[in-house]
Amino acid sequence: MLKIKEILQEFNTEYIEDYKTTxxxxxxxxxxxIAVVAQRLKKNGLRxxxxxxxxxxxxxxxxxxNYFFEDLITKRNCWLKCDIPRELEQxxxxxxxxxxxxxxxxxREAFSMFGVKFINHPDLRPIIVSQDFYxxxxxxxxxxxxxxxxxxxxxxxxxxxxxxDEEDENDKGIGEDSSETVLNWGPTHPAxxxxxxxxxxxxxxxxxxxxxxxxxxxxxxxxxTKKDFIGAIVAVERLCFMDNxxxxxxxxxxxxxxxxxxxxEFAKWxxxxxxxVSRISSHAMGMGGFYNALxxxxxxxxxxxxxxxxxxxxxxxxGARIATAAxxxxxxxxxxxxxxxxxxxxxxxxxxxxxxxxxxxFINNPTMKMRASKQGIISPDMVEDYSLCGVxxxxxxxxxxxxxxxxxxAYDQVKMDYVVQxxxxxxxxxxxxxxxxxxxxxxxxxAKKHIEVGIASGKFNPTKDHMVKVPKKLPxxxxxxxxxxxxxxxxxxxxTQEKATSPYRLKMKAPSFNHTMMLDKLLAGQTLSDxxxxxxxxxxxQGDLDR
Amino acid sequence: xxxxLIKKVYRVSKALGVKSPAQxxxxxLLMHQADRYRGEHKVDYETCIGCDSCNKICPTNAILxxxxxxxxxxxxPEVNLGVCIFCGLCEDxxxxxxxxxxxxxxxxxxxLSGGWHEDQENFxxxxxxxxxxxxxxxxxxxxxxxxxxxxxxxxxxxxAMKDKEVKAPITGEPDFSGGNL
Amino acid sequence: xxxxxxxxxxxxILYILLWTVALFWFFRKFMAALHKRVGPSFNGPAGSYxxxxxxxxxxxxxxxxxxxxxxxxxxxMPILAATIAIVPTAVIPWTEYxxxxxxxxxxxxxxxxxxxxxxxxxxxxxxxxxxxxxxGGIRVLTQMISMETAFFLSALSPALLFGTLSLTxxxxxxxxxxxxxxxxxxxxYFIALLGLLDQPPFNIPDAEQEIVYGFYTxxxxxxxxxxxxxxxxxxxxxxxxxxTLFLGGYKGLLFDGYSFLFLKMLLIAMLMMAIRAATPRxxxxxxxxxxxxxxxxxxxxxxxxxxxxxxxLIGGVS
Lengths: 547, 181, 318
Known about the structure:
The complex is a heterotrimer of chains A (547), B (181) and C (318). With 181 residues, chain B is an alpha+beta fold. Helices cover 33% and strands 13% of the residues of chain B. Among the domains of chain B are: 96 residues, Alpha-Beta Plaits; 29 residues. The radius of gyration of chain B is 35 Å and the shape is rod-shaped. In chain C, helix 5 runs antiparallel to helix 6 and helix 6 runs antiparallel to helix 10. Chains A and C meet through helix 9, helix 10, helix 12 and helix 19 of A and helix 6, helix 11 and helix 14 of C.
């Protein structure tokens, strides 16, 4: 950390301070220095850039850019800020893409939503938004949503015309000398979900891939600013509602930090328990999704059988099976009763009965190994350059897990270790998913025992200890909070104004965004059969890809 | 490798012996009962105090308040089930004791009603307030108003009488004080 | 008179329709049991009316013909494919008395008729104005050509053993000893059968996750039903061929009859389903490698074993 501060002191800064134990927070005065600072930091080892997020301060007539640099090996992180003017012609800053390959799409997103232009970016096109939002800046505070949506038919016509032009261009290459064409592995494909990949191919060989995302864009980051702090949890949980609890934990931790509120020990253990149940629900579907891409549906069906017991527990606890809304600022929303833990035990027993069969048939399957053990190989250098995280990073051998590096909730009292594989191929990602499933079951057993002992000894009161009061109006401040979501690391950056009843700006960094950036590099030179295999193994969810 | 495949096939066939959990006819019965299940709303117009908290906290603006012809406590919530996301925040925030005025827990399946729906109005939770209740509330308000007026008049009359008592002794009485002897 | 009964009822059109409906229902229930779920269970006893309802739904849907297709290829091919798939049932001996066309070369007719199907299916893919259908059609050709060779070679091994190409005399001459001798041939025939019928692990032309639905993509309604009828009739022809050539046809334990042939066909169907539930799909290059490097040389070796067995074990060449 000292080294980072030394580097930063050579430049013209407003302040440099420590933030939590692993972050250095600094603001540089001159926005043209950013490329030089970034390169110095990269030489020192901070090779990963997590996300780039602008905040629009309309009253002070400026836009503040936030850069988050991480070092995955030695766990040092740096948060840089700088100001740029707000008028559209002067809203420019130098791009970091030539040095950090993982910054490519984040800068495109800042350009589409806020109108920030990045000089020297290789390919600055809009992303996520549809054609009727081009040249407009939807997330600025002075954008008029009602005026834009008044004429829906005109917006639809813009999109349709753009698609027809593209279709004519795609077929130009087909003729007598070549069979190169662009195939739409598209939104109405049985295996893709709502994403469109423009596959530039020659017969069955793939030449290049250009993902076109944005079919599930709900503008969640804008929606959150219109609700109060408690009502915002229903927007945050829809990041991907397979694993909704961990994303809510990230948001409420930022709120509690700004409000300076400490939650009870019981609430922390409940957050661990619910988070791991939700992680199991998501990983079970992820394994099924990988095998569905290979044409074998048995795994998905057997995993659903196990998952139903865990969803029964969530239904008894919170009242809904999937979109639970069970974490609020101040703790967890409901108290715990005895019969709920008995239902949880049924799920744990069912998993222990079935796991030997699943391991023997599907994890050691010779046909799957023949198919997937040489495809989609990701090396540890690529993990750092493109800022990958979660299952994808750990199966290439990089030891990164937010629950161990920066413990939150009650994870500092849980016994756990990194689950890593060696090679980084598609098969390793599947094996890693299964081993993480076993690790989650182990953590649930630890948390359950701890809670039962606490209730029996009188330390925890399960019907009263679950929530503390958080004030309705928060002071001015900002906070970041990282959690280990099932697909990777989610970083939430929350900004509030004085006496605020709702968030001023919430930035959610989604892991699937960085994973989808990799598809072009992994699939160039392979055949059409490999597209669903590699796409399914990267554990992408379109909900958090588009937000 | 062929031997491996035969072993896999044998182990998969063991699934033939596992009983599936889908034993009930789900068109008519529930698979899993939970007390806290968030289903269709039940609104109690008698205990509702008209504080408007449920309307303010609803994240999707699914609640519309219905006006009743009273002076105080004159709004009750009605819910649009097509917009509601069944999050349960309105039940959490309702201040009525001992039983809340808007309850989702234990409600029936959201939207599962069978048959055809010709009209959007079927997807609302309406509050039918019977005429006797309105009449009885209006009577009670009227009675309270009359009582207040009577009490006011009584108070004014008492004040007037006290004034008269203070003014009365100034009309001529012999002075037994003694003068300066 | 009897000829008309044979053509229309048994083993004719009505029989094939009944077989399609019953086999589809059986596939769904058996697959569901392997997946730990229940399958169709609401319509009729154990869901047996479900396939009839699906059938009538398909027949009453609109058959959409997209813009820009080749009209002859698109509309006529399904009818042609269904007709040619039904013909092999005429040469198979269903019971001792019922064989519609008795001839000396019935085995040859069976194999050739099964082998014409892939060309018709490729033409359906070629005629739809769709890149995915075209890719599906090319995959069909590539796969069928590799698997046909192994299929042909292993289907000829009973003919080598018994010295005749007529299916009726093969069934009459079969016994327990010949079953043991033909066992390797039966295993090779079974693997080639999986490749011929687009079943896992060789369901490459029908790869839903990669090329939407292969050459079936643009079909709907009655056209689609005719293509599916062709596929199921091919199932029947191939299963019946396996039961007749290797397992002894209609011969049974205490008495002979049609029910034993039915039971043998059902056994092969269950084995196919169990493999389907345990194996993912392999790619085109791996399938070609497997077929030409392992399957075809093994079937040639099998032919050598048959000759050896015939000379030394059964009684010499007559």
